Amino acid sequence: MFLYLGPGLGGGIIAIISGIFLTIFAFLVAVFWLPLKRFFGFIKGKSNKS
What is the distance between the alpha carbons of residues 41 and 5, in angstroms, rounded to a whole number? Predict the structure, then answer.
């Protein structure tokens, strides 16, 4: 009736879930933060040259 899955299953699940969250976070940084940082740097550099 009951199935013993072992102690490694908990660690595997934690590793998979943290990997998914890390991947989503890295995607959001790459898509939103880096272009915004480059844009603000462009604006800052342009205003200093005037």
Answer: 52
